[in-house]
């Protein structure tokens, strides 16, 4: 069951040929419908074989999806949110796209900052006021 390409970002889309899905019976609400209709979707993406990903990007995806990797190294995404197979397939595709987007978005390094003079003065003033308040309590109870 080959899929159309999955657009993750303007710079990357997962190849549809590497996406496969299976349906099975879902748990949860649906009454007798649950016992006869296969609406649960198990979507797998063989990202290791995708030529659009460089080696360091594959490492990032592997780290982000470490709990979702199956024995063959594919990312496995399951959806059984609704009682409709088509909607569950779209939901699984959205989950996979979100996972890949988070993994492939570069982390912005934190810039060290210093508090301003005003912030330091306010903090010290608050500390002084609290100290005086507590000191007043001590001297008043002797």
Question: What's the structural blueprint in terms of helices and strands?
Answer:
Blueprint: E1 6-9, E2 12-14, E3 19-24, E4 40-45, H1 55-64, E5 75-79, H2 85-104, H3 117-140
Antiparallel strand pairs: 1-2, 3-4, 4-5
Kindly describe this structure.
The chain is an alpha+beta fold and 142 residues long. The strands form two sheets. It has a three-stranded antiparallel β-sheet with strand order 3-4-5, covered by helices on one side. A two-stranded antiparallel ribbon has the order 1-2. Helix 1 (55-64) crosses helix 2 (85-104). The longest helix is centred in the C-terminal third of the chain and has 24 residues, at 117-140. The model has no long low-confidence stretch (mean pLDDT 88). It has two domains: 6-104, Double Stranded RNA Binding Domain, CATH 3.30.160.20; 115-142. The chain has three helices and five strands.
Brief rundown of the structure:
The chain folds into 2 domains: 6-104, Double Stranded RNA Binding Domain (2-Layer Sandwich), CATH 3.30.160; 115-142.
Strand portion, in percent? 15-25%
The overall strand count is 5
Helix content: 25-40%
Query: Count of helices?
Result: 3
Domain count: the total is 2
Rounded mean pLDDT score: 88
Q: What is the CATH architecture annotation of the largest domain?
A: 2-Layer Sandwich
Run of helices and strands: EEEEHEHH
Which consecutive residue ranges, at least 5 long each, have pLDDT under 50?
none
Strand order of the largest sheet: 3-4-5
- Kindly identify the CATH topology of the largest domain: Double Stranded RNA Binding Domain
Shape assignment: elongated
**What is the C-alpha radius of gyration, as a whole number of Å?**
27 Å
**Structural class category:** alpha+beta
